[in-house]
Amino acid sequence: MSVSDMPVQRADFDQVMVPNYAPAAFIPVRGEGSRVWDQSGRELIDFAGGIAVTVLGHNHPKLVAALTEQAKKIWHVSNVLTNEPALRLAKKLTSATFADKVFFANSGAEANEAAFKLARRYAHDKFGPEKHEIIAATNSFHGRTLFTVTVGGQPKYSDGFGPKLEGISHVPFNDLEALKAQISDKTCAVVLEPVQGESGILPADAEYLKAVRELCNQHNALLVFDEVQTGMGRSGHLYAYQHYGVTPDILSSAKSLGGGFPIGAILTTNEIAAHFGVGTHGSTYGGNPLGCAVAEAVFDVVNTPECLAGVAERHARFKAGLEAINAKYGVFQTVRGLGLLIGCPLVEAYKGRAKDFMSAAEAEGLMVLQASPDVVRLAPSLVITNEEIDEGLARLERAVAKVVAG
């Protein structure tokens, strides 16, 4: 028996994998649209979207075709050369956004790492080494590299790895006065998620973001939007900055960008991009032809009036269904979020039990997420059908009933 034919099961994870994850008891083996099947053939509806990644669901024919076609041409060339899919994708991203230039990476963390390095390099070159301080939001999440995890405002992720990078501070999200008190002429960048994802699906106030943009202008600081989770149509706009009408200087993108294929990117202006000269930053796989070909297909499907308008319609259907469940069981404080990034913060009696709701949902054949222990999170496909929404909500209602019944 070859290794590829070797049977595997969930118990093998504990034998061969580093224990930094605690995956569910089942292993998905096949997906179609917003449904997946596990090794036993059990079907589940997917409201999790691979944590806001499978933006067009599973096995989307246009993505499969793009990957298959490119796989027959060329897989990798290195950045000593460029390639056609990377150039096509970059042209489409810049034509649809504020940006003039794109840098490709492989993940959200890598995109944010590049964004933060670029912000510091720009300030260093223009204003000198003293201008290096970064202000981010408390409870933010920007990735797991040492730089990005330090910018992220959650000590539980950044503590215990030795000395942290200096010059990084945190202020409460949506609190303009706190930012005013912290920002100075030493600030090189303010980094924000338009909707805080991992900490509970908290949308920014529009007036707050507009005022932050003004503050950054006053202090010659760059505004960096982490749109790893909100980008590529999830808000009902291609990027959430377009929903708010507030333009950043640097934007990071990943997750939905590749629809499940690993790719990340930063978007920025000509003036700022010029400070990443030859040799200042790089990535072996960044701009990989396979990833860029798939991301281009994602872009072509998502950046259409039909797809983006459909996000608002689906949001309304989800919200109505979730509120109907809550009217019966009273487990959520509210239903909040933007587009198809939805959070249901739990009432006091169920605080800390988001994982119980996740587990109960899985037992009913539904995949949901948590965003902090206190919030049930949904990040489904943008093209999920009404039938899949309704069936998934029915399964969620049964799960909620079971948790409430104890």
Q: What do you see in this structure?
A:
Homodimer. Keywords: Amino-acid biosynthesis, Aminotransferase, Arginine biosynthesis, Cytoplasm, Pyridoxal phosphate, Transferase. The modification N6-(pyridoxal phosphate)lysine is found at residue 255. This protein has two domains: 3-59 and 305-405, Alpha-Beta Complex (Aspartate Aminotransferase, domain 1), CATH 3.90.1150; 74-302, Type I PLP-dependent aspartate aminotransferase-like (Major domain) (Aspartate Aminotransferase, domain 2, 3-Layer(aba) Sandwich). Strand 10, helix 10 and strand 11 form a beta-alpha-beta unit. It has 406 residues and is α/β, with parallel strands linked by helices. It is built from 15 helices and 17 strands. The radius of gyration is 21 Å and the shape is globular. The strands form four sheets. Strands 4-12-11-10-7-5-6 form a seven-stranded mixed beta sheet, with helices on both faces. It has a four-stranded mixed beta sheet with strand order 1-2-3-15. The chain has a four-stranded antiparallel beta sheet with strand order 13-14-17-16. 49% of the residues are buried.
Keywords:
406 residues, alpha/beta, Aspartate Aminotransferase, domain 1, Aspartate Aminotransferase, domain 2, 2 domains, seven-stranded mixed sheet, four-stranded mixed sheet, 15 helices, 17 strands
Topology summary:
Elements: H1 10-16, E1 28-32, E2 35-38, E3 43-46, H2 49-52, H3 61-71, H4 84-96, E4 101-105, H5 108-127, E5 133-137, H6 146-151, H7 155-158, E6 168-171, H8 176-182, E7 187-192, E8 195-196, E9 202-203, H9 206-218, E10 222-226, H10 240-244, E11 250-253, E12 264-268, H11 270-273, H12 289-302, H13 305-329, E13 336-338, E14 341-345, H14 354-363, E15 366-367, E16 369-370, E17 375-378, H15 386-405
Parallel strand pairs: 3-15, 5-6, 5-7, 7-10, 10-11
Antiparallel strand pairs: 1-2, 2-3, 4-12, 8-9, 11-12, 13-14, 14-17, 16-17
